[in-house]
């Protein structure tokens, strides 16, 4: 397993140690007030881990503390990993970004778009143009999530067994065929909506590579990067943090069945939300993405997954007209601020720090997970940071904005 320990005196990389300590003190109050069971934070600058802090427990009932090797459900922080896997195959000529999804998954050939009615009785029209691979990478496909509960089509997903999980025994190919048979929320490419797009992208990886998604990720991403604890389940129950929800009384309540899913091999390898990982592993993934002087993006420790120009292209805003998510998206989910934030190929891209009211840099890449995990990569400051906990929903507290606020005030060079 990868080790997680501070590698450099923070002052050597332009971080004030006393100001960094504010991060731990602030989030320590979340544990003191019983808002979180426990958490772990990393800050890496100029390729060296400069700050690691942890507090609380990974399991309230057992009283087990958060350790540096605790395993976390990263949910949608799986998405950038699946996007990288897809772009590895793109670099090899496996597909073009403009290719219709149906060329690889035939059930998407005749998708229809919702225009009115309810989840039981709805009116649809044929898609005006094909759903394309780049639509999957940017969440502009017209697909959705059953758990969003904001549109009649979300109800269709739930009725078919797709909310936070899937019908028993379903694999990725079967799920994609099911989603292809449900109406799209809008014409492909015309809006942004958080969705199962990345799961469909995972199926694209399978079809192009001839491997199951878990096998491809192990061979082409996790193995090369030394991410030894990242997979679609863990057999080490003792290291896995317990999953909690915020109850109606404001108290933490364990989510038993959903949490236990991480302990068994799934039938469906969800590239959009199925991975577990550790802070050490995910730090290595963020370092691979970071484009900094002397270490162009796409490479780590002499192992190159992607070309630097591919990472730079993924890091551009791919929403039409350079719009942000507030203008182009349906602001339904809180993995990122919507104002001042665009979307690249698999990651949110900061367009305007003033709009988002956080002192980050334009060009920052980020995403988060449903259990309040988060990370970002800031090439301008040569900085990455991550936050791990296990609380649903992800917008219960302003953790992500507060973490940025506290990390950036510690930069003093």
Tally of strands:
17
Q: What is the straight-line distance between the termini?
A: 33 Å
The CATH H-level superfamily of one domain is DD-peptidase/beta-lactamase superfamily
Low confidence ranges: none
Shape: globular
SS class: alpha+beta
Query: Can you write the helix and strand succession as a string?
Result: HEEEEHEEHHHHHEEHEHEEHHEEHEEEEH
Residue-averaged pLDDT, rounded?
96
Give the fraction of residues assigned to helices: 25-40%
Number of helices: 13
CATH topology of one domain: Beta-lactamase
Q: Which percent range describes the beta-strand content?
A: 15-25%
CATH architecture of one domain: 3-Layer(aba) Sandwich
Give the class-level CATH name of one domain. Alpha Beta
Short description, anyone?
The protein is 29% helix and 17% strand. It is α+β, with helices and mostly antiparallel strands and 413 residues long.
What does this structure look like?
This protein has helices spanning 17-32, 79-91, 133-138, 152-159, 172-180, 197-209, 213-225, 256-260, 279-289, 308-314, 325-328, 353-356, 399-408, and strands at 38-45, 48-59, 64-65, 72-73, 112-117, 122-126, 244-246, 252-254, 276-277, 299-300, 303-304, 341-343, 348-350, 365-368, 374-378, 383-388, 391-392. It has 413 residues and is an alpha+beta fold. It has a domain at 85-209: Beta-lactamase. The strands form five sheets. Strands 3-2-1-16-15-14-13-12 form an eight-stranded antiparallel sheet, sandwiched between helices. Helix 2 runs parallel beside helix 6 and helix 2 packs across helix 7 (213-225). The mean pLDDT is 96.
């Amino acid at each position: 397993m990868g080790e997680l320990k501070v590698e450099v005196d923070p002052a050597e990389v332009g971080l004030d140690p006393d100001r960094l300590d504010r991060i731990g003190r602030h989030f320590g109050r979340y544990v003191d007030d019983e808002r979180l069971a426990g958490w772990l934070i990393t800050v890496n600058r100029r390729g060296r881990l400069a700050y690691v802090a942890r507090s609380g427990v990974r399991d309230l009932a057992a009283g087990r503390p958060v350790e540096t090797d605790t395993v976390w459900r990263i949910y949608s922080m799986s998405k950038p990993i699946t996007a990288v896997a897809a772009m590895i195959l793109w670099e090899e000529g496996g597909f073009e970004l403009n290719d219709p999804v149906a060329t690889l998954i035939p059930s998407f050939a005749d998708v229809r778009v919702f225009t009115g009615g309810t989840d039981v009785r709805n009116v649809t029209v044929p898609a005006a143009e094909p759903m394309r691979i780049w639509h999957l990478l940017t969440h502009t496909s017209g697909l959705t999530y059953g758990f969003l509960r904001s549109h009649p089509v979300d109800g269709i997903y739930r009725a078919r067994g797709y909310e936070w999980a899937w019908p028993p025994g379903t694999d990725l190919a079967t799920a994609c065929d099911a989603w292809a048979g449900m109406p799209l929320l809008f014409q492909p490419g015309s809006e942004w909506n958080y969705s199962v797009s990345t799961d469909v992208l995972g199926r694209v990886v399978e079809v192009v590579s001839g491997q199951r998604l878990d096998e491809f990720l192990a061979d082409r991403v996790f193995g090369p990067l030394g991410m030894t604890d990242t997979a679609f389940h863990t057999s080490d129950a003792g290291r896995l943090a317990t999953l909690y929800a915020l109850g109606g009384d404001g108290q933490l309540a364990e989510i038993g069945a959903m949490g236990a899913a991480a302990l068994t091999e799934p039938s469906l390898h969800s590239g959009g939300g199925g991975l577990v990982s550790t802070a050490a592993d995910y730090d290595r993934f963020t370092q691979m993405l970071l484009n900094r002087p002397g270490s162009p993006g796409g490479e780590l420790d002499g192992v190159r997954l992607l070309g630097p120009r591919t990472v730079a292209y993924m890091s551009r805003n791919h929403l039409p007209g350079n719009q942000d998510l507030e203008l182009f998206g349906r602001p339904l989910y809180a993995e990122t601020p919507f104002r001042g934030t665009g979307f690249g190929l698999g990651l949110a891209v900061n367009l305007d720090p003033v709009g988002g009211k956080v002192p980050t840099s334009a060009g920052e890449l980020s995403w988060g997970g449903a259990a309040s995990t988060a990370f970002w990569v800031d090439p301008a400051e040569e900085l990455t940071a991550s936050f791990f906990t296990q609380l649903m929903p992800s917008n219960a507290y302003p953790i992500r904005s507060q973490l940025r606020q506290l990390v950036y005030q510690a930069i003093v060079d």
